[in-house]
Amino acid sequence: MEYKPWVFKGRVPEPGRDKLFESCDGLTIPTGGMGFFTAEECTEILNIHERMPQREAITGNGLGQRTNERRKSSLSEVYPDASTNWIFEKLESALLQLNGQQYRFDVDGFFEGAQIYEYPQGGYLDWHMDIARGYMSNRKLSISVQLTDGAEYDGGDLEFMDFDETGPRGLGDLIVFPSFLQHRVSRLTRGKRYAWVSWVHGPAYR
């Protein structure tokens, strides 16, 4: 499927010709694809969510310490199987391209499955990084997919610290960023937001 690439600051770094990329600033800039998943594919992902057990979302440090004080949402957990392999395979193809073009991280693959988040009215996620201790220390790239059209809710923006722009809100939009970037989801004031979230792991930075 063809999709429109995007990057914060309205530009895509070009290796070898791009001064921003040569200075390594490209390593800190979110990127992705507009309309990466079709409306029909987003509906199928939401159907998977509805079939899975759901629980309150919590924030952990990778070593077993968990709290729900910095967020309000619920989630289901999704792992590769006969019904979901197509999602992981589609994401993998895009990540190989985006990582090779912009980040050039050493990555191994999906080791945690994925989570589908449901943010109700009043839902939010406070400032945090996706890297922590333990198994979370090997996260390299974070992935978010919009499963709700942004016109269906107010607030609920994916925001990055020190960036004036917010993540795209179109149905099926793909957002990829280094897991060490501080980010949050602002509080929803109307409607409900669904999002796919997963992480790509890799060896230690060097």
- Classify the helix fraction into a percent range: 10-25%
> H/E order of the elements?
EHEHEEEEEHEEEEEEE
Number of strands: 14
Task: Kindly give the count of domains.
Answer: 1
Question: Gist?
Answer:
Strand 4 (59-60) and strand 5 form a beta hairpin. This protein is 17% helix and 30% strand. The chain has helices spanning 19-22, 39-51, 85-103; strands spanning 4-7, 31-34, 54-56, 59-60, 66-67, 71-72, 74-78, 114-119, 124-128, 139-146, 158-160, 174-178, 183-185, 193-201.
Looking at this protein, list some descriptive labels.
4-stranded antiparallel β-sheet, Jelly Rolls, 17% helix, alpha+beta, 206 residues
Describe what you observe in this structure.
With 206 residues, the protein is an alpha+beta fold. The protein has a single domain, classed as Jelly Rolls, CATH 2.60.120. It is 17% helix and 30% strand. It contains 3 helices and 14 strands. It has an 8-stranded antiparallel beta sheet with strand order 1-2-12-10-14-8-7-3, with helices on one face. The chain has a 4-stranded antiparallel beta sheet with strand order 6-9-13-11, with no helix packed on it. Strands 4-5 form a two-stranded antiparallel sheet. A hairpin with a 5-residue loop joins strand 4 (59-60) and strand 5. It starts with a strand and ends in a 5-residue tail after the last strand. 31% of the residues are buried. The model has no long low-confidence stretch (mean pLDDT 87).
